[in-house]
Amino acid sequence: MHHDPHQHLPPWEIGRPQAAFVKLADEGRISGPVLDVGCGSGEIALFLASRGHRVAAIDLDETALAAARAKASQRSGTVEFISADALFLESLDGLFKTVIDCGCFHSLADTEREFYLDGLRQVVAVGGMVHLLVLSELEPGNYGPRRVTERELRDLFDDGFVMESCQPAVFEVRGERVGARAWLASFMHVGRTVGQA
Fold this sequence. Notes:
single chain; alpha/beta; Rossmann fold; 7-stranded mixed β-sheet; 7 strands; about 25% strand; disordered N terminus
């Protein structure tokens, strides 16, 4: 039995940015300033910074943030890694043109989703984008995070956001060739509709 030096890492720490977000960047669908919610050890944030974007990245896991800051010192581009809670985004300074969420949303309970959406409405500039990679209901079994359907995403984000796209994607997992089935959902922040308090 060979020893995996990374065995203490969670399965989504694959040592590179998730392909779904690389594709978004290649398509020109990321613009800064960027907020990475639940950044883990920072691969996606550092990748986007290397492409010239201003990036702020938050997580509550101090071990992951320490790993992210260590990587950042070795790489080009600048990321501000912040210890902050996805449920209190309004504590962050400034507005973001793009928010990326790789696996944070699908770990939230229903009540937490509401707090998260409230925060997004406050930190995403009107006209800005939110890109979520979430485990989809097409992924078999019940291991790991809860599955999210396209319908749920559309319904949850209906207040203040418009779904631009929801494409089948892969959530890459360390040591697995195939990865898990996911949705890559993209929403534009359009602001509150007229007549709502």
